[in-house]
Specification:
Elements (H helix, E strand, L loop, with lengths): L1 E6 L2 E4 L4 E9 L1 H5 L3 E7 L6 E7 L4 E3 L7 E6 L4 E6 L8 E9 L2 E4 L3 E6 L1
Length: 118
Amino acid sequence: QVQLVESGGGLVEAGGSLRLSCAASGSISSISSIKTMGWYRQAPGKERELVARIISGGATNYADSVKGRFTISSNNAKNTVYLQMNSLKPEDTAVYYCNALRGVSVYWGKGTLVTVSS
């Protein structure tokens, strides 16, 4: 089993920045077998969507809407994934969820709210 805990959400003005963190915990074998970690978001009344993900080995993918503004990174020693969000827009307002894939198992954090005021 893998547990994911997000932090770093909050209220920020448009144009501002936030950094989200996602700490993964569990057995050594579980953590070491995670293949992909990522961030999803869900705005009110909308479906959950992929924001960014990082694959073991370092390859990254981003949603078109955040390319050039958001950066996903990881610190393997701390079992933590980060999402640096710059030039935030009101449409970035959502609950941001951390996600991990391990084999056929999918894990989710409880989410952290990001609110961008105009």
